[in-house]
Specification:
This protein is α/β, with parallel strands linked by helices. The protein has a single domain, classed as MoaB/Mog-like domain (Molybdenum Cofactor Biosythetic Enzyme, Chain A, 3-Layer(aba) Sandwich). The protein contains six helices and six strands. The protein has a six-stranded mixed beta sheet with strand order 2-1-3-6-5-4, with helices on both faces. 46% of the residues lie in helices and 17% in strands.
């Protein structure tokens, strides 16, 4: 099946719940510009926001919140912002990547390519990545509002309904005993 056919079969945005997690030791929900940008863009694209949290940049805290959302069936997509850089406190990748059953390497690769066009070689310092956790798409984005906007506008929002549709068809097929 061609990509256009898959995209045409994707679920409507209104049926795809998005959980937002901001990872920060220095912000609160009022000063969290990255999380606010995500919420605004997600709602404008027609996706319901299932939850919005801000957690400390600590491995177990981040991992526990992702597991809680995924385990409760609370969202089809989880978007995290922050903790993907190289400072000693940036622990989001270490917290979440081990949970990935499948990696979406193309997200990080394309994000860095698009970032390179905007900020040059500094783009290689980003550890943005994505994967699938228990049938849920999980994206790890930088904390910078510009990085969040780039990831949402150019990569996540244009393709996430298609991705969720693929995951749901795969899950439904396996739930019926298919291979």
């Amino acid at each position: 099946m061609a990509v256009a056919e898959h995209q045409a079969r994707a679920p409507a945005a209104a049926g795809i719940r998005v959980a937002i997690i901001s990872v920060s030791d220095s912000r609160n929900l009022e000063t969290d510009e990255g999380g606010s940008r995500i919420e605004t863009a997600v709602r404008a694209a027609g996706f319901p926001v299932a939850s919005r949290d801000l957690v400390r940049d600590e491995l177990e805290v981040i991992r526990a919140r992702v597991r809680e959302i995924v385990g409760a069936g609370g969202a089809e997509v989880v978007l995290l912002t922050g903790g993907t850089g190289l400072s000693p406190r940036d622990r989001t990748v270490e917290a979440v990547a081990p949970l990935f059953e499948q990696r979406l390497d193309g997200f990080g690769e394309l994000f860095r390519m698009l970032s390179f066009a905007e900020i040059g070689a500094a783009a290689m310092l980003s550890r943005a990545t994505a994967g699938i956790v228990a049938g849920v798409a999980v994206f790890l984005m930088p904390g910078s509002p510009a990085g969040v906007q780039l990831a949402l506008d150019k990569l996540i929002l244009p393709e996430v309904a298609h991705l969720v549709g693929q995951l749901q068809r795969h899950h439904h097929h396996h739930a019926r005993g298919g291979s």
